[in-house]
């Protein structure tokens, strides 16, 4: 089925001017960028967005990192978009990521891992709604 998933190009990647190269990976995989904006996340937004990780030891560091530079938030659309995006991103830790994936090519560490992508349909819908209004998504 055609799905939509939520994606973030993270600070380590925007800082190194990798937005276009990362978008090329999505498009080459058949994902369409149907919404996209560059934003400076606030600490409050980052904290809410990653609230599921609140009890993890890396939560504070993760939130500080996400506000350290602008990010690009996106909605990606395509056949099986949620899984497809996860395949294109590669494993969370770049040391475990397959050749050709975004994280293998660009990520610096498990924290500075260049991209975020939704892990399931419910989280995709929630994460899209957190950053985009319906009018901003043009399929
Ligand atoms: P993401 O998909 O954005 O969702 C949660 C993020 O937490 C994850 O990507 C990683 O970048 C980050 N993360 C996971 N484990 C660690 C860790 N041990 N140290 C720092 N950040 C981490």
From TrEMBL:
Q: Spell out the reaction equation it catalyses.
A: a ribonucleoside 5'-diphosphate + ATP = a ribonucleoside 5'-triphosphate + ADP; a 2'-deoxyribonucleoside 5'-diphosphate + ATP = a 2'-deoxyribonucleoside 5'-triphosphate + ADP
Enumerate the CDD domains for this protein: NDPk_I
Q: Quote the subcellular location field of this record.
A: Cytoplasm
The reply on keyword Nucleotide-binding is: yes
According to the UniProt record, one GO cellular component term is: cytoplasm
User: Which keywords describe this protein according to UniProt?
Assistant: ATP-binding, Cytoplasm, Kinase, Magnesium, Metal-binding, Nucleotide metabolism, Nucleotide-binding, Phosphoprotein, Transferase
Residues forming the Nucleoside diphosphate kinase-like domain are 2-139
**Which residues act catalytically here?**
116 (pros-phosphohistidine intermediate)
The GO molecular function terms of this record are: ATP binding; metal ion binding; nucleoside diphosphate kinase activity
Q: Where does ATP bind?
A: 10, 58, 86, 92, 103, 113
Q: Which domain of life is it from?
A: Bacteria
**Function of the protein:** Major role in the synthesis of nucleoside triphosphates other than ATP. The ATP gamma phosphate is transferred to the NDP beta phosphate via a ping-pong mechanism, using a phosphorylated active-site intermediate.
Which family does the UniProt entry place this protein in? Answer: Belongs to the NDK family.
What is the protein's quaternary organization?
Answer: Homotetramer.
Descriptive protein name: Nucleoside diphosphate kinase
Organism of provenance: Thioclava indica
Ranked from the top, the taxonomy reads:
Bacteria, Pseudomonadati, Pseudomonadota, Alphaproteobacteria, Rhodobacterales
């Amino acid at each position: 089925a055609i799905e939509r998933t939520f994606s973030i190009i993270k600070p380590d990647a925007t800082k190194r001017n990798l937005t276009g190269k990362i978008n090329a990976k999505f498009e080459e995989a058949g994902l369409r960028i149907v919404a996209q904006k560059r934003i400076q996340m606030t600490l409050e937004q980052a904290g809410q967005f990653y609230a599921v990780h609140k009890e993890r030891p890396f939560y504070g560091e993760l939130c500080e990192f996400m506000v350290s530079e602008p990010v690009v938030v996106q909605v990606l659309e395509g056949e099986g978009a949620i899984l497809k995006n996860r395949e294109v991103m590669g494993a969370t830790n770049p040391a475990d990521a397959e050749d050709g994936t975004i994280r293998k090519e660009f990520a610096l560490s498990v924290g500075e891992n260049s991209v975020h992508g939704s892990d399931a349909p419910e989280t995709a819908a929630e994460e899209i709604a957190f950053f985009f209004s319906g009018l901003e998504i043009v399929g």
